[in-house]
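To assess whether ligand presence alters the predicted conformation, the chain was also submitted together with flavin-adenine dinucleotide. Input:
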Amino acid sequence: MRSPYFDDGHAVFREEVRAFLAAEVLPYAADWENQDTVPGAVWKLLGERGYLGLLHPRAVGGGERDLFTSIVFLEELGRTGCGGLRAAVSVHAYMATHYLAQVGGDDLRRTYLAPAVRGERLAALAITEPGAGADLSGLGTTAVRDGDHFVVDGAKSMVSNGMTADFLVTAVRTGTAVRSPRGATGLSLLVVDTALPGVARTPQRTLGWRSAGTATVTLDAVRVPADRLIGRLHNGFYYLMRGLQLERLVAATLALGGMDHTLDDLRGFLRARTVAGDALARKQALVHRVADLATDLAAARLLVHHTAWLYAQGELPAVECSMAKLHTTELACRLADTALQLQGSHGYVESSAAARAHRDARAATIAAGPSEVMRDLIGRAVLNERATHLL
Ligand SMILES: Cc1cc2nc3c(=O)[nH]c(=O)nc-3n(C[C@H](O)[C@H](O)[C@H](O)COP(=O)(O)OP(=O)(O)OC[C@H]3O[C@@H](n4cnc5c(N)ncnc54)[C@H](O)[C@@H]3O)c2cc1C
């Protein structure tokens, strides 16, 4: 499809990524999902190809490519139909390491970011806790300064890549929690090496996204060198609010690719399956449902690409990022549900692409900010007239 956002270079890159994923990922992705992990060798391959550092600076081995190169990569990653892999890779390359690239000092970049870009050290983002998720002001994991270390105590949950990560970009409380209109105070970001004494991980078996190896992590008097602080003390909320916009844009883009995959799979089934001597693809009731979904997907793609374009201009389009995330991830649930329904029992078999899409799509309306929080942000912006350009 012709688009004002992509040039010939992006088209060539898309073919390259698609061929790589077809050869190195698609034949094995179902096994990784069953094994709850993405093997280390795959991370190295992704690193060698430069796919783990497309946005990161050249100084750490990244590609410093434009945002739409990443959009191409993420759409193609989504099109593998493997939610666990796409969560694992996006958390590593666009979420956890994003903070190191944006505000990490030279030493942190050398020690953690550069090997992460090469696929040699795996990153995870540890924000959510058993007692607090969407509401960051409720985070309770503490980091108390003791000489040239922080002593970290607490627990994190739903950490994607948690079982295999070499380090966690961790939200910790370094100051008092005060709810203010400007957000949650007293939070900082710290790199916690998972090899440190006091770090313990337990697998959390999730409904979908299984190869992301989700874990709860307990942190028991973990002594973290003070120079592992990312950016400035107590500025964690501010960094997270900026990082979350990219996270939401990435989630929306992955959902687009996931929907492409689900729709492709459904198309193949409806064409091949005959009922009472006629292909299902010729039944008007089904044709219209597919038409509606394809139309919604096309509109969602425009919203995501436009949001990416705004983001690439250096704006921080928070409302559009929330809209893109809300709309695409909820549409992906509807599309997966219809795809499963229209494939009858074939879609209900656990190993089917429709069943996997169904499980995986559910995760994305919760992770990176639940739909209710997205609606809250969008609704408040519209009512406060901060988003009149959208109306
Ligand atoms: C598959 C998956 C992977 C994840 N990966 C990571 C990860 O790598 N790192 C990480 O730190 N976290 C991760 N998360 C956690 C995710 O960010 C949280 O689930 C999310 O922020 C919501 O927090 P919670 O689950 O504690 O729900 P809660 O905050 O307890 O909220 C429960 C529900 O209440 C509603 N709700 C909450 N707040 C509001 C509000 N303000 N207004 C109206 N309704 C509201 C929503 O329906 C929400 O789903 C992951 C989650 C999933 C599902």
